[in-house]
TrEMBL record:
Enzyme class: ligase
Name of the gene: Acsm4
GO molecular function, one term: fatty-acyl-CoA synthase activity
Domain AMP-dependent synthetase/ligase: from-to ranges: 67-423
Catalytic activity: a medium-chain fatty acid + ATP + CoA = a medium-chain fatty acyl-CoA + AMP + diphosphate
The organism's taxonomic lineage, starting at the top: Eukaryota, Metazoa, Chordata, Craniata, Vertebrata
GO BP: any one term: fatty acid biosynthetic process
UniProt-recorded name of the protein: medium-chain acyl-CoA ligase
A cellular component term, taken from the record's GO annotations: mitochondrial matrix
Keyword Ligase found: yes
Assigned keywords, A-Z: ATP-binding, Fatty acid metabolism, Ligase, Lipid metabolism, Magnesium, Metal-binding, Mitochondrion, Nucleotide-binding, Transit peptide
Source organism of this protein record: Calyptomena viridis (Lesser green broadbill)
Entry's localization field: Mitochondrion
EC number: 6.2.1.2
Amino acid sequence: MKLLFKLQNLKFLWTLKPPNRTFHGHPRLLASDVYSQYESIRRGKQEIPKYFNFASDVLDKWSEIEKAGKRPPNPAFWWINGKGEEVKWSFEELGFLSRKVANVLTKECGLQKGDRLIVILPRIPEWWLVNVACIRAGIVLIPGVSQLSAKDILYRLQASKAKCIITTDKLAPAVDSVASECQFLKTKLMVSKGSREGWLNLTELYKNQSADHSCIKTRIQDPMIIFFTSGTTGFPKMAQHSQGSLGFRPLLSERYWLDLTPSSIIWNTADTGWILTSVSSVFDPWVFGSCIFIHNLPQTESAVILNTLCRFPIDVLIGAPTLFRMLVQNDLSKFKFMNLKYCMSGGEPLNPEVMEQWKSQTGSDIHEVYGQTEVGIICSGFQGMKIKPGSMGKAAPLYDVQIIDKSANILPPGQQGEIAVRSKPIRPLGFFSEYIDNPKKTAESERGDFYVTGDRGTMDEDGYFQFIGRDDDIIISSGYRIGPFEVESALIEHPAVVETAVVSSPDPLRGEVVKAFVVLSPNFSSSDLKSLTRDLQDHVKKTTAPYKYPRKVEFVQELPKTVTGKIKRNELRDKEWGRM
């Protein structure tokens, strides 16, 4: 079936008019102006183009606009670290350097179109060069988070059959310890000032390489990136995205989510192995011609984050909920942000209390985004849309999002069910292609005409979605179905609670009960824990339905999390049920 793009029941989005911003005398230049050839597709009047390459059709186009003096003097890429080092690239410089890296990959490493490459790098400039170079050469990129162990790396190399890996000297020993078990691995590249036996030095090679490289012609459905899903159970699956699903998608929906311009500077604090980084630190900003800002922090420190927002003209801040929960622990009145307009949070729900604290102290909103590795961002509080605390906004323009039951029937507003996205008869452009080498799981992701997320939620009369919890996170106590997020939100309102996770715990009478794992604020670390437990329980009873209160409370120093910052409730739940 041909891949078509249609906007249905989304007329209200076209009425949202972006502000008329300027930058140093430059009028606002929208991506829709730059890519006017795609406007008829945006309106559902023709088929998606057969060929597309993000590097040649987007990045090189902005380089031409830059040369013509029609883009503001913003860099395309702006990188700093805590050591006083700084890198700024224009789109022209980005193109020049990425062509050099593309030649390293094809000439020095012998990689061809369709070959797979794993990149495990922290937030350093080379990560962005490798991304663009792979797109130019048609090499399928596989990002990995920098905290991966040798066992994790072995699984990824074997499952993906990657022919090349790029990492740092810090992870090189871990790769060497498993490389002999990876028959497809041919080349190891290291970003380092030093050398290591059996490794090529990417830093030295690309500096001395020619920049004469012709971007390969790719079909819009050709594979571009594979993400290992960050699921809380089982081995990670390989979700493959195409040139179209990540590279072309923002051309059609650019003015609804981030509302960026070439004047904008966007800072995403997420790890480089997460799809949110690819979306908000590569594809979507550069479609707008915006500047991607990166502060390479060895660890997240709230004072450094806040001071960076004061020192640099950052328009948009993006981070996991943990980031904002941490930031609101500070006296934000002491900080005057230079240019911050709004924030985005994703990965898991952000408690309404944190959103309200941030808004009252900074004046800027936090817009929630909801999505998955497989389908990207499918819901958000779009610019110009009223924010409802506790809601993750409305369906994104490319998607028909519904709440369905086990038989794939659409449920009415207010009724709890599974969050799903219509995938038939027309598969949305932003969807993943498949789980590589796993047709069973690919098939299981569909129910009737829908892709099922595995998350439970509700939709109100106005089309706003609310997250209830993972299907396997739901607690059934004395016949009541209890979502963890509502209990967690109630707990985090209490001044003693910095962070919390709620899971089921076995109970001989009720089958299972609510248990809360709580990280305390330093101000309450010396409190009487028995008294504080009763206080927290009473607080939840007053805040939400009394049957939802945590009958068990355990105080912990920290919560287990995935490498992308999601709380690993399954680990806590398994501990409770004696499976660890």
